[in-house]
Amino acid sequence: xxxxxxxxxxxxxxxxxxxxxxxxxxxxxxxxxxxxxxxxxxxxxxxxxxxxxxxxxxxxxxxxxxxxxxxxxxxxxxxxxxxxxxxxxxxxxxxxxxxxxxxxxxxxxxxxxxxxxxxxxxxxxxxxxxxxxxxxxxxxxxxxxxxxxxxxx
Length: 153
Prior knowledge:
Layout: H1 9-21, E1 25-31, E2 38-41, H2 52-59, H3 65-70, E3 72-74, E4 77-85, E5 93-98, E6 107-113, E7 116-122, H4 128-152
Antiparallel strand pairs: 1-2, 1-7, 3-4, 4-5, 5-6, 6-7
């Protein structure tokens, strides 16, 4: 059976479209911790500008405590780390908030799904909790759809 990151780009783009159709997020990307790094992104958002360095820092297993002190940069946007359970079994999420005035900052959720990671930025005014829940819900749906797709190959 093939690895999730080996799924073709069109399938990942469909996943991005599904996330955006929920209305709770305004930008999304799917990344992995090895080349090609960025598997798919919303072309009208900012996450298509995620760099290899940003992805490597975000997904590094070592030195994660530095992320709390230094923050995280996503596509050139500085973010504050709220909660890091990305490598906690059964949770596998990270919650961030873009820096800026409180009224203009946005919630960001990163969710690990096997060998890929979904990066989702909420609409202005969307809190991290509902964004995180929607990301979990969508990831479960997408994971099942991809497993069914791979079973047919």
